[in-house]
Specification:
402 residues, alpha+beta, five-stranded mixed sheet, four-stranded antiparallel sheet, 22% helix
């Protein structure tokens, strides 16, 4: 998701989750950092200022007692950051007992704000929303991907695409529609209250939020629409098309999210391309902010074929506190076998279909980030990667959902 800041537009590409309000995000075999139990932070885990009460619908039993305080929550954040954060040495000393802001603001103060010279990516995400998005592709919103360019008076926000059946589609908002104002706040507002209002309206965090937009459609008609956020199922691969370029078959693949539901969609797209005998592929990841590395590895394998078997896809390097987690992660050549939460428990399924291309054309923007950049970087030693568009966001760092 793209968010506004006072001076720039940054792309958030993964999640660091709060300890209260839901279960963990689960683990992925062969991917470092998932499911760790950390000795110091564990003593504060699940101690919540406002714990859930009543019956857990998944277990039928009462929620466990997680009574705690806001200070306990901030202590968990500080301990976890100290144990796991790549730049833990640079984290400012902010006492969790005397800090008066929210736990999420405290996390930001320690990381993205506190280490601003190095970290422009870390942010929080509610556990329930992260589980739904990463496992099922469901998230609260209008079903509109906003393309944001510029800042302040030069800021332009357009609809890049709209999910079918979403609130945005029902309102007739199509690709290219330009946002003029959000709940009365001009899209060019550069003040912090204005930026907060724009973020809250364009990127709702819950369902049922009503937002009024002034938009200009492609025919230059200006109109006012009111959108109510809903649980929208994202299509990670909205389009896979075979084009004929003077007798040479070209596959066009629009890929928007490295989430678990992307795997079968990508496999189907590559099988379609292979059956059609495509000689080239145009990979459109202009609006792909990243996600699971194993999805990126699978896609790269399917594009490159046998040349990458047994080779390293990425090297993971942690801080000195976690050097035992350092490892080489290879190109995944098999389909995954999913567990009950929709995430892989093993990569021992059928062989992935493979094209064995000698080159790939990649469409990018500044929002092309993280795992999307991994696809390009990992393929460059084995094939020609022709990048077209803006410079990608530049995020050589991974995230662990906790």
């Amino acid at each position: 998701m793209t968010r506004f800041t006072r001076t720039a537009v940054l792309a958030g590409c993964a999640a660091v989750l709060a300890a209260c309000g839901g279960g963990g995000a689960g683990g992925l075999p062969g991917l470092p950092g998932f499911g760790d139990t950390l000795s110091e932070s564990s003593q504060y885990a699940a101690k919540c200022e406002a714990p859930r009460s009543g019956i857990d619908p998944q277990t039928g039993s009462a929620y466990p007692d997680r009574s705690g305080s806001a200070t306990d929550e901030r202590r968990w954040v500080k301990a976890y950051v100290n144990e796991s954060y790549l730049w833990y040495r640079d984290v400012p000393s902010i006492d969790p007992a005397s800090y008066t802001g929210t736990v999420t603001a405290y996390f930001d103060a320690l990381t993205r704000q506190g280490v601003s010279s190095k970290d422009r990516f870390s942010f929080t995400y509610p556990t329930d929303r992260w589980n739904q998005l990463s496992q099922s592709g469901v998230d609260a919103g209008y079903g509109i991907e906003w393309a944001v360019e510029g800042t302040g008076a030069a800021r332009v926000v357009r609809a890049a695409f709209t999910e079918p059946g979403s609130p945005g589609a029902a309102a007739g908002i199509t690709r290219g529609a330009t946002v003029l104002s959000v709940d009365g706040t001009s899209i060019s507002d550069a003040t912090q209250p204005g930026i907060d209002a724009l973020n809250a309206g364009l990127f709702p965090s819950t369902t049922g939020r009503s937002t009024t937009l002034s938009i200009r459609d492609l025919n230059n008609t200006v109109r006012t629409v009111t959108l109510v956020s809903a649980a929208v199922t994202k299509s990670p691969v909205p389009q896979a098309t075979v084009l004929d370029n003077g007798g040479r078959k070209v596959g066009y693949l629009l890929f928007n999210d490295h989430i678990a539901t992307a795997e079968p969609a990508l496999v189907a797209a590559i099988e379609q391309f292979r059956s059609a005998g495509v000689a080239d592929v145009v990979l459109d990841i202009r609006y792909n902010g990243g996600g699971f590395v194993y999805i990126a590895s699978q896609l790269a394998t399917m594009l490159a074929g046998l040349d990458v078997h047994g080779r390293t896809f990425e090297q993971f390097r942690y801080s000195d506190k976690r050097s035992d987690d350092n490892q080489a992660f290879g190109f995944v050549t098999k389909r995954s076998r999913a567990g009950s939460n929709g995430l892989p428990v093993a990569f021992d399924g059928a062989d992935l279909p493979q094209l064995g291309l000698s080159r790939v054309f990649v469409l990018t923007t500044s929002g092309t980030c993280s795992a999307s950049e991994s696809v390009m970087n990992a393929l460059r030693p084995f094939m020609q990667v022709i990048q077209i568009g803006e410079t990608s966001c530049g995020k050589p760092y991974g995230f662990t959902a906790k």
